[in-house]
User: Fold this.
Amino acid sequence: MKNIVLFFAFLSCVIATAQDNSLSAIGKITYSRTTTLPGDRYNNGATTLWFHPEQSLFVHNDAPFSSQSIYYKELDASGTVAGDSTGFPILKLHRLKKIWFKESFPFVEYSGMTILSDTFATTVWIIDATQTRTIGGFLCEKATGHYRGRDYEVWYAPDIPIPSGPFKLGGLPGLIMEARSTDGKVQFLFSGMEYPLKTSFKIEMPPGGHYDKRNYGQMRQFIHDFIQKLQKQVEAQGVEMTIGSPMETIELNANN
Assistant:
């Protein structure tokens, strides 16, 4: 009984961390997201980052609202693309270096969207202040870094001291205005900005979703182990089972 009580106390603390102390955004930046990756391309299009010095919220505006069946031409196979009416939000807590994000994961013991924790601002950036560009009226400096299996080139604005950017990127002494992976498969291009913000917007995790005690890395390991266990169980019954590699996404691994 004691363990159960402690677990629920922990879970309550987790939910409170993600939902309480919401702040009003001081600005927002919109990016056009483009990727050719089969596991991620259906969330392409307009995205928005609502920001404040303490935290920010990234949302995929053009993500499908509900799950839908699609055909993967390159795989010659059909599948299902998950949808989310809140745009698969990513809440970033800058000072705590923590992320909460909403995603759809297979094989979990509950239905609906999952909200997981993750780490924030772990990229070691190399800044080249000699290379500059003007984006959205702000003078930006170039930085390069590695995140989850990909190398990125980004342009950030030192005059906007917000350590955030598109997707899960962040940790620079200024807002990331544009980001591209050097393999050419991922890009977030600046498309507009409102700063300061004219209307009130609370930066908080949108409603809906199940808070899971596992973090991002633990969830990936859980799915891997589940598939391996399932394959062994089926093969033990004399049935051959072939499981293809997961479709490539922006995050190639759970490491930084």
Notes: Residues 216-236 form the longest helix (21 residues). The CA atoms of residues 164 and 170 lie 4 Å apart. The chain has a mean pLDDT of 89.
